[in-house]
Records
---
Amino acid sequence: MLTVYSDSHRLQHGQAELIDGTLKPCFETPSRADMVLAAVRERELGDVIHPSRHGADPILRVHDAGYVRFLETAWPRWSALGRDYDALPKMWQVRRLREAVPEHVEGQLCYYSMDCGTPITAGTWQAATAASDTALTAADRLMGGERAVFALTRPPGHHAARDYCGGYCFFNNAAIAAQSLRDRGLRKVAVLDVDYHHGNGTQDIFYPRADVLFLSIHGDPRTEYPFFLGFADEKGEGEGLGYNFNFPLPAGSCVSTWFVALDCALEQIARFGAEALVVSLGVDTYQGDPISRFQLDSPDFVTLGARLAGLKLPTLFCLEGGYAVEPIGTHVVNVLAGFEARG
Ligand SMILES: NCCCNCCCCCC(O)(O)C(F)(F)F
Ligand SMILES: [Zn+2]
């Protein structure tokens, strides 16, 4: 399987995130991608290519122009205030506060974000655009005839909505890739999110649409991040009603429960008649993940890959989460190798 990878990911290296009420070193570190790349090479998964540049247009097919402009200008404006440390928001526009876009960079940081775990640094813009180019290059190769491509994307993307960042995500790489497949002529694309956390951003982007089916298996938002989206009764809106499937599972759910949800999701993808599949591949479903609470173990990721191959669809994998850094490469490549072995 072909892998698309850019070294530019390491330009995103936040100093700290506010997690569980205190500032801690970021869990989303460059070493995550380094470990995955090392495993791709060690297991001889296939060629590794660098992304080609695609410019802003494909990003603007998914994200709001004001949000993209904010991300591009945030760091220079923040550092012009004499701040050489990461930019983090300090409040949000909550219920009954005006939904007006502030002029000041501090206000825009609050308006265009959903949490304070997603530091904007000097290299964020370059890293995030490189991740988007990585996913787009994977889409190009899938349309060029590859059966499956792995976009080794970092920073991740599935929490990034049309007009806000969060959960370590800035551009929604999987959504940008899915939209690119649509723009290149596919009529129906499915996005399956197997990360521990609900892909609120991807849901937000495709919620009113019937041409992209979104499905997510994740920790129940009643107790798990991102808390405010990902419930089973969210089924889409307008033309998109019936094209959104959430499978929230209680924290601590066993592996067999997880795979029952997966089989339900795969059945919906087959019924939809998808012509291609984009997988938001987070491996924080691992039993040893430091911030997540599912029970998958290493062999289960091989099973996951094989089940996905059973759809017999051109498939684009986008890396999302996974914070047990030592085994992350093994788990990600287990999915990809399991997919390939199913042939
Ligand atoms: N007590 C735990 C608090 C967790 N706070 C932030 C969690 C972010 C998860 C990010 C991710 O894994 O979903 C992604 F794939 F986007 F990277
Ligand atoms: Zn996650």
---
Amino acid sequence: MNQACLYQRANEVQRYDAEEILQEYAEKFEWRHDGLDCLLDVGTGSGDVLMDFIYPIMPKQFQSVVGSDVSRKMMQFAEKCYSREKQCSFRVLDIATKDKLPEDMVGGFDHVTSFYCLHWIQNQRQALQNIYDLLRPEGGDCLLVFLATNPVFDVYKLLSKSTQWSPYMKDVHRFISPLHYSSDPKMEYTKMLKETGFTDIQVDLKEKVYIYEGLETLKDNVKAVCPFLDRIPLSRHNAFLDDFVNIVSHDLDLRHIEANGEIQKFISPYKLLVAYAKKPALIENLLNNLIISVEAEAGEAEEKKNIN
Ligand SMILES: C[S@@+](CC[C@H](N)C(=O)[O-])C[C@H]1O[C@@H](n2cnc3c(N)ncnc32)[C@H](O)[C@@H]1O
Ligand SMILES: CC(C)=CCC/C(C)=C/CC/C(C)=C/C(=O)O
């Protein structure tokens, strides 16, 4: 991710989706009876999505809203912009960490949200386990929104094969959504949520299209999120972006030129995965596990009976 201010200026599609998803799913959150809810947002970035769309839906006397991100620069930027807001703080946190989570965060949240972050992570199971552990032992819920597929990943793949850019993109697979090539992202993610211990799972896969109005709009969005630009000498950025646009236009055929031949639009068909799930209360979880093991034993006994 590149400069927080650049990202905040070029995140229209992320903002649009966050606002739309929260309008549809906010009512699913199970707020605490005492209203003293704590929410953690994962992959908060520059903070405007958290503060403009999530912060306003918190209960009146909520206890805390914590933005988190693996990028220290993003958290410093968000801190500078929003630290005056009540009960709001920002933490550096790698949601895919295999290390121990910060002790003061484990089991500390009633709700975890994440918007346009989890497709940056290959180890989805580790991220889900960490999200599960960050929720309270007495239960909580999460709303996770990220890209299952996006043409940008196909562009990255093609660019990584070119002699010019391959030296900077040898690890391109790290930046392609782990569900981009999945035949059934919804089933795959539902299975991962179940295996992590989540219940009341609702996973939706939303087919969407975003239209980038003009070449500079597209290039600004690429500059804001493309992880390879930081590795390429500044003097070659324009060449990279031109090759990016050429692939979009000619290889993927996603450019539309208006009749007058001047205005270019770039069409981005993508699939957004939206997952809501609950972490059951400890006792409920124990009962769930007991039911699962009893059912498994019953199944084995039935199989043995049929064999004999
Ligand atoms: C596209 S931005 C999304 C920001 C904001 N949620 C929004 O919707 O505009 C993705 C963010 O995820 C962060 N990110 C990437 N990998 C992460 C990880 N392993 N743990 C936490 N944050 C991560 C990036 O640093 C970046 O700020
Ligand atoms: C036409 C086309 C290929 C558009 C894609 C533009 C673009 C830069 C999409 C970024 C998707 C992404 C990884 C967003 C994010 O993580 O916030």
